[in-house]
Amino acid sequence: MVWKKPILILASVSLIALLTLPVYAQAGTEELARKLIQSYKNVKSFLQGIMGNLDDETASKVEDAIARADPLIEEANSLISSGEYEAAVEKAREALSVIRDVLKEIKDVDVIREGARLRIVIGRLSRAVARVERVIQALENRGVDTTNFTSQVEEIKSLLEEAKSLLKSGDLEGARAKIEEAVNDLKSLYSDVRGAAKEHLNLTREKVLNRVKRIERASERCVVRLDLIYKKLMRENRTEDAEKVLKLKNSIERTLLSLKRHVENGQRFLALEDVRQLFRYLRVCRRIGT
């Protein structure tokens, strides 16, 4: 399995995503405060874990940021204890802002870039496992004994969880080793599942190609339509709506490229997953502008 080097986005965004700092839009105020504090702890743990790989100047910047952020987190904890949850949220956000600032400043440091890259690889592997699970479920629905497959899936998931944990602690070498192990296990599982699917699911090349041709034509028409809608929205200064349309258009184009690659490589099951994803995008596309 070959992974292409991802385009590096701002380390402040990549790393925060890596260390599980979601928006928590649906959380209550107390829960939000506690989760923000935990997110700070995750980021701090990562930065402390990679400290030995940083040059003196960068390490000094990180230490200074932590020294400024720690008292804010202590205040946040005290405010939670006294029931002042909104104030605790603000203090936690202030601490995370300090960390974000230093991450922006050192975004080009190799170890930061590598941490972001490994996080993306883990995400890709998790999605690949989910695709294999759907094929396994289809086999189970046909009465096939999938116990061994399910066991392998759980082992791979466990490796990925270990990789995440190691990554959060700044142990990039350990995370990299777990990722490599997961990749090898996933290759073996995919080969076994593909063989079983050929036998039990009657997934012929002709059937896949017919589905591919139909969805490609519909998706290409949708891309043209979305491009026109995007331009119209921009002329009307409806920037937010235009960005949503552009995001959908880009997603369809990326999935079309993925579909072409999987078909060319003979990866029929992955190609069908692309087809299913395109069907979902097309349902959204039909609702736009109506």
What report would you give on this structure?
The structure is a single chain. With 290 residues, the chain is an all-alpha fold. The protein folds into three domains: 11-108, no CATH class; 112-200; 205-287. Helix content is 82%, strand content 0%. It has helices spanning 11-18, 29-50, 56-81, 85-105, 110-141, 147-168, 172-200, 205-235, 239-264, 268-287. The chain is globular and about 65 Å long. Mean pLDDT is 82; it is low at 1-26.
What's the arrangement of secondary structure elements?
Layout: H1 11-18, H2 29-50, H3 56-81, H4 85-105, H5 110-141, H6 147-168, H7 172-200, H8 205-235, H9 239-264, H10 268-287
Helix pairs in contact: 1-4, 1-5, 2-3, 2-4, 3-4, 5-6, 5-7, 6-7, 8-9, 8-10, 9-10
Q: Helix tally?
A: 10
Strand segment tally:
0
Question: Which structural category do the helix and sheet elements fall into?
Answer: mainly alpha
Sequence of secondary-structure elements:
HHHHHHHHHH
Uncertain residue ranges: 1-26
- Rounded average pLDDT: 82
Radius of gyration in whole Å, from Cα?
A: 23 Å
Q: Tell me the helix content.
A: over 70%
Give the number of domains: 3
Shape: globular
Sheet-strand content, in percent, reads under 5%
Largest sheet: number of strands, sense, barrel closure: none
Termini separation = 42 Å
